[in-house]
Amino acid sequence: MAELKEGLKAPDFTLASDTGEKVKLSAFADRTVVLYFYPKADTPGCTKEACSFRDHHAEIQARGAVVLGVSPDDVPALTKFRQKYSLPFPLLADPDHKVAEKYGVWVEKNMYGKKTMGIERSTFVIHKGKIAKIFRKVKVDGHTEEVLEALGQLG
Questions:
Q1: pLDDT tens-digit profile of 113-142?
Q2: Number of domains the chain is built from
Q3: Residue 6, in any domain of the structure
Q4: Is residue 1 part of a domain?
Q5: Residue 143 CB neighbour total at 10 angstroms
Q6: Beta pairing, strands 91-93 & 14-17
Q7: Residue 14 forms beta bridges with which residues?
Q8: Among 25, 107, 118, 137, which residue has the least CB neighbours within 10 Å?
Q9: What's the predicted TM-score (pTM) here?
């Protein structure tokens, strides 16, 4: 599959949320979506990232955007994670990593010499169905501020 680039149409998908409801990306076609992929619920980096999006959620909403988090976790794990940290946005389950593959974030990772497949922490800002900004290999510290800056640049 061709690599996604800014300006291209965002691949549509439907995933189960932490509440078990189906969430379809195209349902947000008239909105801006901050779609972030993270490796695993309730791990240190992923918790810090989710809590940063939580803490800046009002600012993100003020810029007309919604936040959707995607990980390979199952629905019960996401429900627990969202409740534990009072996350005000849906978490979506991608256990077969089909959506992560569509977005090119299911990659080979090398951890202490051991190669495994997993999520490359990435965020896509999707504006009116098109990819406006891509953040790959995200470093958690300062990332939410980068996203807010990108949202501020949308016309």
A1: 899 999 999 999 999 999 999 999 999 999
A2: 1
A3: no
A4: no
A5: 18
A6: antiparallel
A7: 24
A8: 137
A9: 0.94
